[in-house]
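Dear colleague,

Thank you for sharing your sequence with our group. We've completed the structure prediction you requested, and as agreed, I am returning the results in plain text so they can be pasted directly into your records. Please verify that the sequence below matches your submission; if there's any discrepancy, let me know and we will rerun it promptly.
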Amino acid sequence: PGVDSRFNYFIVIVVAVVCIASSPAPHQAQRTYQATTTSLIVVVNKKKKKRKEKMATGPSAVPVLGDLTPPQLDACATLAYTTLKVALSAKGKVPPEQSSLLQQCVDDVVKQGCPAFALAVAIWLRDKKELGNRLISTTLLAICVHREATRPFVRQAASGVIKIPTDLTELRNAYDQFSSEGDAKTETKAKAPCCLKKILGDVIDTLPEFQAAKYDSTSKIKRTKKQIKEKLEHLKKLDPDLAKQAAIAEVSAFGKLHSAGAKNEAQVQAVLKRLEELRLKLKKLHGGDLRNMIRHSHAGKQHELIMKVLRKRYPETEEDFEYSHLPGDYDLALVGSRMRLEVPETWDRALAENGNTPKTWADLLTAKDDKGRYSLPYMAMLRNLRNILLMGLNPEFIRKHVLARLPNRQQIQGSGQTATSISNTWSVLEKEFTEEMLAKHKADSEKALVNIMAYKSLLKRIRGPILGTSDKVPGIVGEFLGEPVWAPCGLKKQGGCFLALTHVEIRGGNVLAKGKGKGRGKGKGREMGKIEKWTPVALFPLTSEFLLEVKGAIDKAVEVAADCAVQPFALKGEGPVVLWMDASNPPLPSLDAKEAIDDEEEAAKNAKVTAASDVPDCQAPAKKVAGEPRPPLAGVELGERVIVSRPGDECELAEITSHRHLNLELIYFADSYQDYNIQALDPTGKQLWNATFSNTQIRNKDNVNCVVHCRDICSNPSPTEPARRTCHVDLESMDENVFALMITSQNFTSARPRAVSVALRECHNGGAGPLQGNHQPHDCKGDIILAQDITGPLMNGGTVIYAVLHREVTDPDSWTFRNILDLSLSAETRVASQLNQAVAVVFRRVFAEGATQSIMDANRTGYVRTCQLFKALSEGRRGREGGPDIRVVLTGVKKKGGPEPEAEVVELTGKYDQDLARLAKARKGFTSKAVDADAGLRLALATVGCAGGEGKQPLAGVMRIAANALMPSKALDESRTQAGCAYPYCVIDNRGHILEARKEIPAVKGALVVPGQIESSVSLLRNIVQSMESDPTQGNPSSDELLVHYVDGFLNQFRKTAEKS
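Please find the predicted structure tokens below.
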């Protein structure tokens, strides 16, 4: 069992021959022969019968979801929302806990009798018009391959998920992971199912040679092995003992390593992390290697392609040539040579070979295929638009080959680009090409052009043996210099184009490492936030006037993409349609005072009384002692509500307070000093100042206090009273170059604290202005607004970098608090210089990703969805006489207003770029502070004149675009009663709050919540609302039911294929 049938036949025949040969009597040999023949006939007949039955029945029909029971609906909706949540959060790979969650959701759906729904979710996620996610869709497909209940439908749906060969790589690796987990439980190695082999065979049999060559991983495997070897050699220099372990096994890049300081620890961690990444990459490459897949799936339709992938030799005889089924005629000149795939000509390969030069880009932008279509993909042109503009190409050339392509509807639809992605392109360009940058670019180009023209002029006049005739013949002067004449002028040649050495800023100079050295040697002369780089000399430097033309072309492209994404949307009801943009976030997690007291009483009740001599060693966590209760946040005086910060959490300060005078308190139970610092850094990561026990008073450029420390405190005064250190911070007094305040704590002694917390308190007593350093702690007369526990890290000793206050890039007057305990280093750093290095490392970790996305506004998704809805509703209104008018209103708590929510009417024009700018400008005046949903709806309707009056006030519908999915049940019932109808109420949740709080949100009839991260969210909302209005018999289905049936519809095309088969 489990072995190929042909091998079984062979074994039977061999056994029979051996028995006959070894039989002493003829009659025994005769009986053995008869038995063998009979068994072979039986086996063959059974195989033929099974094959006929299978061909008669055809592939298993994919079941259709009908009326769902509540458990079925809950299981399917949970799977859809969970996969969407994981798809939006996973980066590069699926964490083990999320993988287990996905498997559990699929198992629940299968138990409820909906085995094919998981495949529908996979196809839905993979659709480029929906989310276009490859990672989670292939993971779901791998789970379905691993589950027996879903295997009959996998092959039919695989073509909706597997689009390119790298999807096969992800599928194989994900299945191998699930299979290995199952093998570990059962202690047996399972065979790969037949459906997986069929999927691999189907893809390889239809794989074009171009894609096979493009995704061939043979050279990548060799290169990755070489990189692993180099990293092991590097690790050997840093830590020989650890290198020996890493060479034979995987060593974790996290956790406590050695106390060699932050710099060494950071380097070792970086090398170990890179090693882990390379080994994972090598494993994936082996799993997705086309050669392994061909051998595994027994694909055999494309004989020439398979022989080229496997690098077989050309047949030596004509008989072998005919047997190989190669096309064409037999060629004696190729006998014995290796058959290889032709190297594909792609734009990225051409750029790598010829360099990032004007000539290379000119060739790429003008290249066309046999059908007259541009070879450079639209997406590649869009992503490299900054590079193209920096090349200094002729403006007429760019207008013809770039700007004319941008608004092309066919290319936008074919590339899958959305209005959001195209508008983000302009945000990048606008951020990069400031007036200062354009002036510098022009000056650099003119300076380099002067040198080039001087060289050309000299070469023209003294052409010959002195200056030479070309770069290859440099002449006497060139031979003396050892390089061409133009090289000492700061020029370089690549691909026939001159390059100049310039100082280049990356993303406005954000998040770059400090230059090496101390002004001598390798790092000498390097400016902070800049690197030296060879850049092309622009013959036509970019100007602000031409940049406006680029903006116009991008605006047209955005308009076209927005039109492609939505269709006219008309509501049947009377009255206006309200587009309500809610600026509030979901309520922040908090700890109630009563909850804390209950927890404290429970802890004191369970605490065991121990003697003073039983106080634990400093290396172990502290135990409870009598009279020393430890609440969830040690020593924090809880008010009515206190926001609790956990590792990775962040919140805008404007959400929790409007004060700019704050007091940062360190509260601890310890027997020794606990120090804490505030380090100020600029956007490049350069340290501006460090407020600590030895530097207790920081003044700004106007000589005004901005940070003041109180006196140092050794230990807590009594077992029940904590030590409390204060540091007053005035955010409004910070200099403009202060970008981030890194908050750290250190433990310089062997004694470990028993409990430590840090709290942020409002200061109503004058702030830092009138204070002096080392002052006596005093009452700030303010409430604690945020608290964070840091007991665990400080018990381990050393440095803890646990929080950062930083400015918002899009609004420098706004500050955000972020808990960064999840990124903190764990080395015992006791030297100030090492502490600075540790802070620099964590700063880069925190803001490295943010630097590349610094131009992204977190609320942009909401702006885009509002504009799309306005456009769709406006088009629907034009197609219907007397259609409802559209009123746009923005609500929330204003930054320079009172604590109560306010509303503002926003006039939209229907022009995408202008409306985006208007919404962003209006939203900038509001905070993200949570507002009650009922109060927000009443305020929005009253502002646009749809509530508060007497008599009936009809409404066609309310469309809410918000960062939460909270349901205003009471206000909605009141409004519908006054309107005289149950008008549709729809929410586009642009932050994904519905994904976490779906079961907490009450179900309301005629109310729909759609995740805004899906590009088709507006179309999805339109289709569902129109189906509700066109078919009143279906009642008022819930959001879950509507979404589940929408997702299941993605399997319809595969159901039709199965019916044809």
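Summary note from our side: DSSP finds 38 helices and 23 strands in the chain.

Kind regards,
the structure core
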